[in-house]
Amino acid sequence: MNQFGGSVQEEAIGTDFFDDPHKYYRRWRKNGPVFRVRRPNGLPHWLITGYDEARTALADPRMRKNVTDLYEILRRAAPDGRGAGASELLSSHMLNSDAPVHTRLRKLVGREFTGRRVAALRPRIEQITEGLLDRMDGQDEVDLIEALAAPLPVMVICELLGVPFDDREKFQEWSRILLDADPSVDMAAVSQQMSDYLAALLQAKRAEPGDDLLSGLIADSEDGDQLSPDELIAMAFLLLVAGHETALHLIGNGVYLMLRDREALEGLRAHPDRIPAATEEVLRRFGPVGWATMRYTGEAVSLGGVTIPAGELVCVSLDAANHDPAYNDEPPRLHEVDESPKHLAFGHGIHFCLGAPLGRLEANVAFAQLLQRFPGLRLADPEFFPDWRIGFMRGFGSLPVRLK
Ligand code: HEM
């Protein structure tokens, strides 16, 4: 008998999950859309896998994210008592806050992160992509992640935020450690390095503002608004981290899917106007954020036939919801997507991805240019199987392709 009256299943997740989550999803569907799991690191929490329940939960204000309470609950639940990855300073950003704090932060960044600013980036994204493809030209074989999927989003986010591109190795390494919450690394030390780096960068921008988004945020906050220095650090951290690993995997996963279906790839090459719809289907099938960030119940919540008590950790599997057979029993081929798939790959509700227009734009430009430039593009090894990243970010670190 467990604390939920014995009727609630708890499913253990093995590290083989990351190679083929669908094997698990198929089995889990028999449990209903809401049940308990235990992560490979021993952390127990509720998991939501049904599409309707996922949408409902993501829009439910009783599913909270306030970082102080969340970290406390995580520390209590974690078998080693270590809790989450990044420090509370770095993590006190809008993705870890509830209304009205979230409303205020989102409004402030929304003034700078506008559709206009993103749309204006298109020619620059095209130019950066062209430059990266120029470097690939003439080679027989490249790793597509290293040559295109990784550098493009970092170059774009660095320009947008005004972060020196030369610093990328440092902050990419720190953010990867903090995202994956690697237990063998001293998170406090890495968090400190990251926050010191961002504090110095913001200080330099205060002294000498540029035409970039972080300078804009500083100027706004000095205009009588209240983004404190700590809030600026957390916001910069969120934008930097959320803005490149995700787009990297969207491009990597998309190219992989196209290369596995030659006819779809040729169809998209012949009809590039179909690429944006194909990108949406890539997001549905292989969205880079497999599981949304952790929430907790502020009060008891009944969902999908179970009642989750107050103060419990809850995670929504966007990936499982996007494959709910109730909605997606016959997926279209990538070149035949007519209707935008109903996916939750960018989340839903107040935390819906701020960078969705940018992520989509980067992927659309990358796919279009790559298909036009390299007619012979194919997997270097037709039997290639991705080495999926361990963690709930869905993507892989290398994709060897032949260009001729
Ligand atoms: C390209 C693929 C991307 C995907 C699949 C993606 C996915 C997501 C998801 C699922 C969430 C919500 C998480 C949750 O509710 O737990 C989110 C939030 C967020 N994303 Fe993205 N993202 C992408 C690109 C970007 C980019 C390029 C940026 C640019 C900076 C960005 C910035 C953000 C921010 C700031 C939030 C927090 C929004 C809030 O709390 O109000 N994302 N993203």
TrEMBL record:
- What single Pfam family name could you report for this chain, choosing any that match? p450
InterPro entries in the record: Cyt_P450 (IPR001128), Cyt_P450_B (IPR002397), Cyt_P450_CS (IPR017972), Cyt_P450_sf (IPR036396)
Membrane-crossing residue ranges in chain numbering: none
Gene3D superfamilies per the UniProt record, alphabetical: Cytochrome P450
The reply to whether Protein biosynthesis figures as a keyword in the UniProt entry is no
State the similarity comment.
Belongs to the cytochrome P450 family.
- Return one GO MF term: heme binding
Q: What is this protein called?
A: Cytochrome P450
Q: Which organism is it from?
A: Streptomyces kaniharaensis
The alphabetical list of record keywords is:
Heme, Iron, Metal-binding, Monooxygenase, Oxidoreductase
